Amino acid sequence: MTFSHLGLSLKVLSAVEAAGFDTPTPIQDKAIPIAVSGRDVLGIAQTGTGKTASFVLPMLTRLERGRARARMPRSLILAPTRELAAQVAEHFEILGKSHKLTVALLIGGVSYDDQDRKLDRGADVVIATPGRLLDHFVRGKLLLNGIEILVVDEADRMLDMGFIPDVERICKLLPFTRQTLFFSATMPPEIQRLADNFLSRPERIEVAPSATAAATIVQRLKKAPDDPAGKREALRALMREIDVKNAIIFCNRKKDVGIVYRSLLRHGFSVGALHGDLDQHQRTATLDAFRNGSIAFLAASDVAARGLDIPDVSHIFNYDVPIHPEDYVHRIGRTGRAGREGFAAMLVTPRDFKALKAIEKLLRQEIPWIDGAATPTEPGEASGSNGRHRRGGGRSKQQKGPSGRGAHAGPSATSPQAKQPPKHETRHEAPAAPRSAAPQNGNDAKARDERRNEPRHDQHKHQHQGEQKPTHTHAASADRPAPAHKAPQLQPARSKQQGMGDHVPAFMMRPVRVT
After folding, report:
1. How far is CA 135 from CA 79, 106, 127, 349, 360, in A?
2. Whose CA is closest to 486, among 448, 457, 435?
3. Helix (H) or strand (E) holding 222
4. How many beta carbons lie within 10 A of that of residue 89, not counting itself?
5. Cβ atoms within 10 Å of 60's Cβ, excluding its own
6. Which of 4, 28, 107, 281 is the most buried (most CB within 10 A)?
7. What are phi and psi of 470, to 5 degrees?
8. 206, 237, 268: which is the final residue of a domain?
9. Angle at 146 between CA 174 and CA 107, to 5 degrees
10. Number of structural domains in the chain
């Protein structure tokens, strides 16, 4: 089977033959004839199956006739990352060398002036990231009412990076009669909704189950400790024991990319770093060094998982288990491309058990271990030796301790309070108050609140200042509204705790009229 039966033009077929492509991949074989006919396409295939050529080749065939006008491109390709957009532009240069098409690459990190000059001359193909494209549109340097073909590449990555609102805005600015080619490796509900809104009766092409890895990739797992130093040592040991030509090492965070990069550099590895905080010049220089073999290892974040088209990557090392299971498929898709064999290994710590199970559920298979290790224990069991179970054991010992002087007045042995160690047993302080005074604490506070609300009679304020404190105050106050009869305390220590000192207010010394 060759490309000759797919309906491509003679110029495109000659370019394909010159590029060394002889047999189309399954996604190319099914998508190209439909795209050449002008119908919408919804393509689902894993990374590395040739999705880029499946829309570049029919676009070259359809754009052979006609020319673009100034600031009015004829076709638009949206890519989630700068690297992926640049690689799509390289495909146009290789496959469209016999065509006289003008290609404008609109990505961040590059001067606006060069991009404006290409748009002013008229661009047949615009390849852009969503943010930079909207920047040119807002500045009035780009008109989108002449777009004939729209391509959304790596749509699920657009979702992960938060570009879906921008994509929706761009789609609303385009003509309704356009052709839309929509490609994605996975099909989450948000992407399906986007496809339903902006595609017109598309032909769905699914050459493999959604979110599956290529069969040519060997996948393995390796145990790693929780501490960062031990995990980095496990990575270095894995890289030494396997014959590696070149490899990409994926981390979840940009901070970890820098840590792994410096660690490998100190231990003599030829390594570079790639993450979103680098400017475009640094990112391009690092990728070029990795492609030409100047560096053998590349520590990268997920920004490179969709943006690298290096066909000869032999190994993938996942330093971190991906948070989203779909990211695992895209990471290992950097190896084993175009039918080649690949190898992907992932370090798994005890706390990564849940994320690992989510990946295996998505892949519908279990990933074998390099050392034949069993599946890690559940997170609760893994942390039981130094987590909640150990603390629970400590409490059970303290429940058997000797009973203090207030043991029978405190909470029961089965209550949660009984499990807490008594604080006064470990400190040498003043002895506790007598048992008879302990139950009055709640009533004392209530009595103080009621006394604050009583009306004060200033005319009796100094009437009984010189009278002697009665010893029967407790009984005399019995006819007053309850529970005010518990307010006076005869013990000086208790009175000081209530904030009254040794002084008894005059209103408490007033005689009580008995009826």
Report:
1. 15, 10, 14, 43, 41
2. 448
3. strand 217-223
4. 18
5. 24
6. 28
7. -70, 145
8. 206
9. 70
10. 3
CA 309 vs CA 80, 321, 434, 476: distances in Å: 14, 22, 81, 95
Do both 112 and 142 map to the same domain?
A: yes
| 84: three-class secondary structure by DSSP | helix
72 bridge partner residues: 69
User: Each residue's pLDDT tens digit in the chain (515 positions)?
Assistant: 689 889 999 999 999 998 888 889 889 999 999 999 999 999 988 766 788 999 999 999 999 888 888 899 999 999 998 888 988 999 998 898 888 889 999 998 888 999 999 999 999 999 999 999 999 999 999 999 999 999 999 888 888 788 999 999 999 999 999 999 999 887 888 889 999 999 999 999 988 665 667 788 999 999 999 999 999 999 999 999 888 889 999 999 889 999 999 999 999 999 999 887 787 788 888 888 998 889 999 999 887 656 566 778 899 999 999 988 888 988 888 888 767 789 999 999 999 989 999 999 988 889 999 877 655 444 444 443 333 334 444 443 344 444 444 434 444 444 444 444 444 444 444 444 444 444 444 455 555 555 555 545 444 444 444 444 444 444 444 444 444 444 444 444 444 445 556 777 888 888 888 87
- Which residues touch 376 (CB under 8 Å, ≥6 apart)? 223, 348, 350, 352, 353, 356, 382
The residue segments making up the domain with residue 487 are 471-510
Q: Please give the single-letter amino acid code of residue 90.
A: E
Which DSSP string do the residues of 242-254 spell out, in sequence order?
Answer: S--S-EEEE-SSH
Find, among 454, 514, 453, 451, the residue nearest to 478 by Cα: 514
**Alpha carbons 436 and 434: distance in angstroms, whole number:** 5
Instruction: Please give the full DSSP string across 341-410, using - where no structure is assigned.
Output: -EEEEEEE-GGGHHHHHHHHHHHTSPPPBTT-PPPPPPHHHHTTTTSHHHHHHHHHHHTTSPP-TTTTTS
Global pTM value: 0.61
Among 235, 232, 223, CA closest to 348: 223
On whether both 96 and 201 belong to a single domain, the answer is yes
193 in the same domain as 223: no
b/e per residue 311-333 (b: at least 16 CB within 10 A): eebbbbbbbbbbebbbbbbbbbb
List the Cα angle 255/261/262 in 5-degree steps.
95
Q: Tell me: do 185 and 234 sit in the same domain.
A: no
Q: Give me the half-sphere count of Cα atoms (radius 13 Å) on the Cβ side of residue 229.
A: 0
Residue 192 shares a structural domain with residue 167: yes
DSSP label at residue 209: -
